[in-house]
Structure formats: structure tokens, C-alpha cells
Specification:
This is Hpt domain-containing protein. Residues 41-108 form the HPt domain. The protein has 124 residues and is mainly α. The protein has one domain. The protein has helices spanning 10-15, 20-34, 39-49, 53-68, 73-87, 94-119. The termini are far apart. The model has no long low-confidence stretch (mean pLDDT 91).
């Protein structure tokens, strides 16, 4: 596995006790973090198109905080690059950085969903 992970909550599970209770808590954290789906990107994309760079930057910062806790190192890295471009108002760089971040976010959502399916007991 590469140094830069898409999604990894193994450390979090171990830190929480590495048992069924820990798995349950981490599963809730993962579900809550992923619950907004692509909505933050739709909001941030609209903010960028409307020139509200500060609003877009705040949304990306928030996503980075909630999803970063899930071991999403690649997403954190992509978000920091985009947030920096927004802060420096480098409009030429923003579209490609936004696309890269959105792509990473979709990978995190996919991997998180896979993890939840493997680690959540079937409802019964």
C-alpha cells in the first residue's frame, strides 16, 4: 500500500479498542462523515462559479477536517493544494485542483462504503 492512503480507519479502530464496540463507533463516524455525499462539492462548485472564494475555501476546509479523520491522506493533500490556490486567488489553477479533489473525494466515498459493507453486521 502506498504512503498516501485513500481511506484507512484501521488505526482509528485500534485506538478505540479494536473490538466490536470500536467497530460500531468507527462505522458511525464513517457513515456521518460520508452522509453529505457530493453535496459539499456542489455547494463549493457553485461558490467558485459565483466568485465566492472564501465560502468555497471554508467548505473544502470543513470536508478536509471531517474526511481527513478517516485516514484520507490523498484527499487532505489535494484539499490543501486547492485551499492554497483559493487563498492566493490563482483562478487558473482552481478548476483542475477542484476536479482532482472531487475525484479523491469520490474514491474516499467508494472505499468508505466498501469498508462499511465489510464491517457492519447485517441488520436483523
Amino acid at each position: 500500500m502506498s504512503e498516501e492512503s485513500i481511506f484507512s480507519v484501521d488505526t482509528l479502530v485500534k485506538y478505540m479498542g479494536n473490538d466490536d464496540k470500536a467497530l460500531g463507533i468507527v462505522a458511525k463516524i464513517v457513515r456521518d462523515a460520508c452522509a453529505p455525499g457530493l453535496e459539499p462539492f456542489e455547494q463549493a462548485g457553485a461558490a467558485l462559479r459565483e466568485g465566492r472564494l472564501d465560502d468555497a475555501g471554508k467548505i473544502f476546509h470543513s470536508v478536509r477536517g471531517s474526511i481527513g479523520a478517516l485516514g484520507a491522506k490523498r484527499l487532505v493533500s489535494a484539499s490543501l493544494k486547492l485551499e492554497q490556490a483559493i487563498a492566493e486567488q490563482r483562478g487558473d489553477a482552481i478548476p483542475s485542483l477542484f476536479a482532482a479533489l472531487e475525484s479523491e473525494y469520490q474514491l474516499v466515498l467508494r472505499d468508505a462504503q466498501d469498508w462499511l459493507q465489510r464491517n457492519t453486521p447485517a441488520a436483523g
